[in-house]
Amino acid sequence: MPRALVTGITGQDGRHLAELLHAKGYEVFGLVKGQNNPKAESIREEFPFVEIVPGDLADFSSLVSALERSRPDEVYNLGGVSFVAMSFNQAELTANITGLGVLRMLEAIRLVSGEDRRIRFYQASSSEMFGKVRETPQSELTPFHPRSPYGVAKVFGHDITVNYRESYGLYACSGILFNHEGPRRGLEFVTRKITHAVARIKLGLQQEIVLGNLDAKRDWGYAGDYVEAMWLMLQQPEPDDFVIATGETHSIGEFLDLAFRAAELGDWHPYVRQDKRFFRPAEVDLLVGDATKARTKLGWVPRVDFPGLVEMMVRHDIDMESRRINAR
Ligand code: F7E
């Protein structure tokens, strides 16, 4: 039975990946930080097959212990600060966990795996590294120009992954994933913030949605499709880096169009208010990925399209909020 250690198991991608690995017959270990972390409890309830391993990306020795305990064939590093807006307020924390955390894990793998370099490593890199984009669409060859402390930390994580592969022969891959969403997305991210609010407006629980910049454009895919690409990257004869994206870009306005249509609410303009609070000090205006390499070498293709994604999220949130009302 192959064994995998996943950091960030309590997040959206961690949950999707835990399910995927379990279905493929893996023993799944999830790194969880802190004492009595309530998120660990929710993982135990939702995924009883996951073995929780205590540890923190800020603490090198805890990573060594986690590797010794889980003895993984594969490590998926999905942990860290993932909310770009928050990284502006907690830049040092973001650099430490999202950036240096990658180095700590790589170094722990190097130490624990010794000469045989058996452990395969996946780094969750991000399209935020492209930031103020130098070309469109963005591919593995596009230079980086990050626009947030998060993007800067991700560039470090990406570069150090490539460096450990080239320096020590580690099987280390970096997946440059464009935005990927779904019903498990946190409510702070714009897509889920919108679909959750749309559901509540539909059910008469809320009157408006307060948002920031509506002009930003993103390449949005479905998280369930994207974790498959992570796994595929670690099954190849040679490690490499891949852009994972749909190749389509849409504005927040277009997302609103589809979300309001899915809930049969009509025009969204009367419901949406903009507030400076949700604007960022520096913005990433346009992202659209070229995933040709992933398609050709990994045989990866996204299954859920943009309208399908928005509808899935709106439906889920209407069901969730309706159940809440009925449980009162
Ligand atoms: O923002 C704009 C905001 O927070 C998308 C993370 O998974 O994907 C994600 O990063 C856009 C931005 O995601 C609101 O200014 C407008 O232009 O949903 P988001 P993100 O920053 O693109 C990348 C690939 C990652 O790696 C990250 O970890 O939406 N926007 N109004 C808003 N954004 C939020 N959150 N809230 C608003 O009210």
What does this structure look like?
It is built from 11 helices and 13 strands. The strands form 4 sheets. Strands 3-2-1-4-5-6-11 form a 7-stranded parallel beta sheet, with helices on both faces. A two-stranded parallel sheet has the order 7-10. 46% of the residues are buried. Helix 3 crosses helix 5. Strand 5 (120-126), helix 6 (149-168) and strand 6 form a beta-alpha-beta unit. By secondary structure, it is of the alpha/beta class. The longest helix has 23 residues, at 91-113. The structure holds ligand F7E. Residues 82, 84-85, 126-128, 178-179, 188-191, 193, 211-213, 216, 218, 252, 278, 280, 283-284 line the site of ligand F7E.
Give the percentage of residues in beta strands. 15-25%
Distance between the termini: 44 Å
Return the string of H and E elements. EHEHEHEHHEHEEHEEEHEEHEHH
Helical residue percent? 40-55%
Summarize the structure.
With 328 residues, this protein is an alpha/beta fold.
Show the helix and strand layout.
Blueprint (H helix, E strand, L loop, with lengths): L2 E5 L4 H12 L3 E6 L5 H9 L4 E4 L5 H11 L3 E4 L6 H6 L1 H23 L6 E7 L22 H20 L2 E7 L2 E2 L8 H13 L6 E3 L5 E2 L2 E2 H11 L7 E4 L5 E2 H11 L9 E3 L17 H7 L7 H22 L1
Parallel strand pairs: 1-2, 1-4, 2-3, 4-5, 5-6, 6-11, 7-10, 8-13
Antiparallel strand pairs: 9-12
Bound molecules: ligand F7E.
